[in-house]
Amino acid sequence: MFEVSQALLDKQIIETALSVKNGMHTLLLAQEYSKLNKILLDNAKEHLDSIKRKYESGEASKTELLIVEASLSNLTQVYESSLSQVRLSQETLNNLLYLDKDVKIIALGEFNYEARDVAFDEGLLKALENRPEIKQYAAQINADKSAIEIAKSASRPSISAGWDYYSRSHAVTTTVNTRDWHDYNVIGVTFSWPIFDGWKTKAKVEQAVVDLRKTQLIRDRVIKDISLELKDAYLRLKDALYKISSSESDLVVYKDNLRLVNDKYAKGQASLLDKSDAGVKFAVAKFNRDQAAYDYIVSKSTFDKATGGY
Q: Taking the model in full, what pTM does it have?
């Protein structure tokens, strides 16, 4: 049935669009995470160089040196792992877009967003109106109702009429067709009413009714599942909004701290390592904000998908 097929196609389009959109944002976040780990790794190397100088001059203990070396080793592993996450995100997108495995996708851009609250009730009404699954089962219910009527029609009377003209005249004329008493018209009416068909019609009707009831139960179950899906997306979206607000506040603090340290460094009141540490704190705060924005964007996309959009 066309309506059912169209609804299934719409569902596939929405799910594919969501997967690609989220996949691109996941790749972008993975790239930002690897950049952050590179900054942390470089900062750890600077700390190691500093502690080595202090150790050689007797200002730091062997234990302090070993702690920094262990920290550097751990950060190296984390950085390598973050590069693997980038490659995995690229491979996932290649599969979604049916690209060759050797194609290397690079995500460009920033985590831009317009944070706004949403209403659950409004979203649910929109979902019940737009979700392809709802349209699919609505079309299936109509088809099942038609199937019941078709099954019932087997036990209903039928009337057919026919007309024919017969000629038994063998007279041949040169120019004009003529009729004589041998020619006649026949009009017939046939009325039939199946009296007993071995309960076949009754069984077909009962089966059609069962099919309709099954479809209605599945439709009701789908509506409940959609409601739960929307509720989960709604709660995730609310949580993402809170995280964005918190991370934005932290970013302001560490951005101002970086500015102050840079000013002190310019005046000779702070070391290069102090400047590097302030830069690391700002980079971490920025990534936390980006991650919160990522969570919001993905949650918003999931919520939109749950309402039947993308």
A: 0.68
